Automatic annotation (TrEMBL):
Belongs to the AHA1 family. This is Uncharacterized conserved protein. Residues 22-159 form the Activator of Hsp90 ATPase homologue 1/2-like C-terminal domain. Gene3D superfamilies: 3.30.530.20. It comes from the Bacteria. It comes from Mycolicibacterium gilvum (strain DSM 45189 / LMG 24558 / Spyr1) (Mycobacterium gilvum).
């Protein structure tokens, strides 16, 4: 499994996931830069993603929805704040309605995704920071660790295919 470490810190309001892949940094970057590849790894296997808009540049927006096993749809968005191709990017990640309007009742996280060369492959570090400890606790209770870990673990299959 690619995910090697998961830590959450209520005091700093952060969730950090580290994963290692047997692929160069540029290849991991391409997964996030290509909406069709991103669909294969964003969201856990039982909630596959459909990317609607994909503008991976500062000020750009990525919108998507995940479809559950019963056909239920859950939308979200990324508001891209910085890009350092191929080493990573930062974005605000939020929940949305099916028209991609932000859902103010659910937390928004500030995210830093970094990709660095490590042991002949890539170490990916995913850090999400929430405005409050309560917001972090809310997403933890919603299963963010399990969902994000199972989503990230799909990257090996995409790399092999």
């Amino acid at each position: 499994m690619p995910v090697t470490d998961v830590q959450h810190d209520i005091d700093s309001r952060t969730l950090t996931i580290v994963a290692d892949f047997a692929a160069p940094v540029e290849r991991i970057w391409q997964i996030y830069a290509d909406p069709r590849q991103l669909e294969k790894i964003w969201g856990p296997p039982e909630y596959p993603a459909t990317v609607v808009d994909h503008d991976l540049r500062p000020g750009g927006r990525v919108t998507y929805f995940m479809t559950g096993p019963e056909g239920d749809k859950h939308a979200g968005y990324w508001q891209i704040t910085a890009v350092d191709k191929p080493n990573g990017f930062t974005f605000d990640d939020g929940f949305a309605d099916l028209d991609f309007n932000p859902n103010p009742e659910l937390p928004v996280s500030k995210n830093v995704f970094t990709f660095t060369a490590h042991n002949g492959g890539t170490r990916s570090t995913f850090v999400s920071t929430y405005a409050t400890a309560e917001a972090l606790q809310q997403v933890l209770e919603m299963g963010v660790v399990e969902g994000a870990s199972s989503a990230i673990n799909q990257i090996d299959g995409l790399l092999a295919g």
